[in-house]
Amino acid sequence: MSNVAEVPSAGPLCLTGRIEVEVGGEIVADTDDVALCRCGHSANKPFCDGSHNRVGFDDPGVIQGGRLVPGREEVADGAPVRIVCAVNGPLLVRGPLAVVGSDGVVSEGTKGALCRCGLSSTKPFCDGSHKESDFEAD
């Protein structure tokens, strides 16, 4: 798969490939390399600003639960993945993506939700923890 999200220990979600980032219905990034916040503290959400270092974000970067799921339609080689930022919620995956944990475990698919509040017990995937917290983001 040509679109990859690497999950380093205690760091941001590092995406490479054909990446589109959507906020509020607008594409704010169309790139081949981007770091997205997964600690929930960036002042430049959804992008990483290094706040994970300041707040002591501690996550091993392994896939602890959750997964991406395949879509019903066939996806063309080289198709982009769109990351849609849900208001006060997760990063929604729409298109082909391989999520690679720091331990090498891979989850591939075309749909899913990635945690960006830093509180999920199934990081890097969302478990709904943002709903019980004061997480706010466009």
Task: Describe the protein in words.
- The chain is mainly β.
- The protein has one domain: Ribosomal Protein L9, domain 1 (3-Layer(aba) Sandwich), CATH 3.40.5.
- Helices cover 4% and strands 37% of the residues.
- It is built from one helix and six strands.
- It has one helix at residues 51-55, and strands spanning 4-7, 13-23, 26-36, 81-85, 91-101, 106-114.
- Strands 1, 2, 3, 4, 5 and 6 form a six-stranded mixed sheet that branches.
- Strand 2 (13-23) and strand 3 form a beta hairpin.
Give a nutshell description of this structure.
With 138 residues, the protein is mainly beta.
What is the CATH class?
Answer: Alpha Beta
Low-confidence stretches: none
Overall radius of gyration: 14 Å
Q: How far apart are the termini?
A: 29 Å
Q: CATH-wise, what's the superfamily?
A: CDGSH iron-sulfur domain, mitoNEET-type
Number of DSSP helices?
Answer: 1
Domain count: the total is 1
What class do helices, strands and sheet pairing give? mainly beta
Chart the SSEs and their pairings:
Blueprint: E1 4-7, E2 13-23, E3 26-36, H1 51-55, E4 81-85, E5 91-101, E6 106-114
Features:
Ribosomal Protein L9, domain 1; 1 helix; six-stranded mixed sheet; 138 residues
